[in-house]
Every structure is written in C-alpha cells, then in structure tokens.
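Pilot study result, target chain (113 residues):
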Amino acid sequence: MRPYLTSLQRPGLLELDADAKGHTIGHDAFESARKLIGELSSEIGMMCFLSVWGAYGPVVVDIVRGREARHTDIHIGRSMPLARSATRLLFRAHISAALMPDRRVTTAGHRID
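Predicted structure:
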C-alpha cells in the first residue's frame, strides 16, 4: 500500500498529514476539482458539489451555487445518503471493496443495488 500512496503524493493528489497520522487530499487535486465543479455549474446553471469519502460515506466538502436559487439541504459537511442519491451511484461505481466490503447494503440496512 505504501508505494501506491507514494505514487499519489508525487503528482499532488495526496499529502501526508502528520497531525492526523494519515493522508489528506492534495491541494492540487482539491483545487482542480473545485475548478471543474465551478465550470460545470456555470455551464449548466445548477448547483454542483464536491464530495469525498468520509468515515460514514460521501461527505460534501465544497459547493458552487447555480444561477437559479433552489432550496436544498446540501451543505458543507453533510454526509450524503448511500441508499438514495446520485452521489451514491458515483461512489459505488468507483469505491474500493476495502472501504465498503458489502456494497449492496448500507449501515441503515437499505439495499443499494
């Protein structure tokens, strides 16, 4: 695992966090993702958000509001539901089995197939 993490550190995708005794998203990767969601939001005129895998699933870490005002309960720090969200579909398609061994059932018991 160590060579894999090191390979992600070189291009700035991960940074070693001595305080947390682990790794965090690299500044370059985070800023690139923020730029992309900003461009997407401008293009489609809707709110877009960036989420990362947290202790209990996807967590919103940045939001770009769209041109049209919409009432939503999405805010920075919100954990997105694994059973009923488009975010779930993206994470489920790409998540490692080590993070979520049984990808068919969430902690709340909802099937996500």
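One observation from the pilot: Strands lie at 14-17, 22-25, 48-54, 57-64. A full batch analysis is planned for the follow-on phase.
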